[in-house]
Amino acid sequence: MPRRIRSAIPPFFAVLLALPGAARAQQSACVPDPAAGTGVLEGAVRDSATSHPLQEAGVTVEWRDAAGGTVRRELETDRNGEFRICDVPVDAWAHVIASWFAARDEASNVRLEDGRARVALSVRSPHVVITGHVRENTSGAPVAGAAIRIGPEPEQLTDADGTFRVEGLPPGLYDLAVERIGYATVRDSMTIDFGTTVDLTVRLAPDAVPLEAIRVEVRSLVLERTGFYTREERRAGTFITRDDIERRMPMASSDLLRRVPGLRLARDRTGNLIATGRGNCPYRFIIDGVRINAGFSIDEMPPHWFEGIEVYQGPAQTPIEFGAGPGDPGASCGVIVVWTRNRR
């Protein structure tokens, strides 16, 4: 299975809409229908700087129907950066837009000829830098001259310290291969998202024996820059990361708080769930460093907006940077610190 390397993706910059599996199968099998006057629009989205295919790029196609209304189709590109849209009228002009982390490039006035048309779109993609170390499995000694291949990138060799560096990769799924004469070849795959720092440690064995080949340590840039990991190491408070959120798959954001010790969810007069502590004292909220008025409900924000959440039960736990002022009526209550995925 590919290793998934996750991090911060701004929610309002995310790809537009993923088609369900059944719909994808139908799209891949679609063909022009002359009797119905419809055809197939195909295309590819690539990075403008490197020409790498951009997988999961958002694609929107619009055209006017016979009644003058606007028809819109939205989908994502596949692993090869390709997309296909069925049932496009052959006598209509289609407007195609590709989006990728707020960057967009558009091809307008595309018309199907003989039931088919193809467009090529290029989008400027944020690039990922991968650094790594290749070491001997038993001794830990660096392996110099090992050949590294990541996706379509040219092969490169590790230096005398067994290190390597690959730059200019857009986010996506990549195959990794590490080879050196006298060692068993290591092959793996990984999916890298925007906003990650990636450091790989690859261990080569003199003999072809099963082993844990790659150790990947990934930290969210959002949480790293805001001091989240430093505070987490102090073991004061409760910390919820993006991986925790995706593993729990909450229906509502308040579901993330139900397992926090000492925290209770109570409904206010409007029916919203409010986080309270001892003595029904409402928790204060700090969102991306901004203090929010009392009575805020975390359900006002959907779960996919969060990159990390910190919960402190009272002044004894709360770090000084999140502490309340002496005149704050909620100074004795707990505080919930929220970091969103669109933070810069």
Q: What report would you give on this structure?
A:
The protein is mainly beta and 344 residues long. The chain has four helices and 23 strands. The strands form six sheets. A five-stranded mixed β-sheet has the order 1-14-13-10-11, with no helix packed on it. A hairpin with a 5-residue loop joins strand 10 (147-150) and strand 11. The radius of gyration is 25 Å and the shape is flat. The two termini are 31 Å apart.
Distance between the termini: 31 Å
Q: Figure out the total of helices.
A: 4
- Judging by the overall fold, what is the CATH architecture of the largest domain? Sandwich
Q: Give the full name of the CATH homologous superfamily of the largest domain.
A: Carboxypeptidase-like, regulatory domain
As a percent range, the share of strand residues is: 35-45%
Q: How many DSSP-defined strands?
A: 23
Helix-and-strand structural type: mainly beta
Indicate the overall shape. flat
**Element order, helices and strands?**
EHEEEEEEEEEEEEEEEHHEHEEEEEE
The number of domains is 3
CATH class designation of the largest domain: Mainly Beta
Record the strand order, biggest sheet: 1-14-13-10-11
- Main pleated-sheet profile: 5 strands, mixed
The helix content, as a percent range, equals under 10%
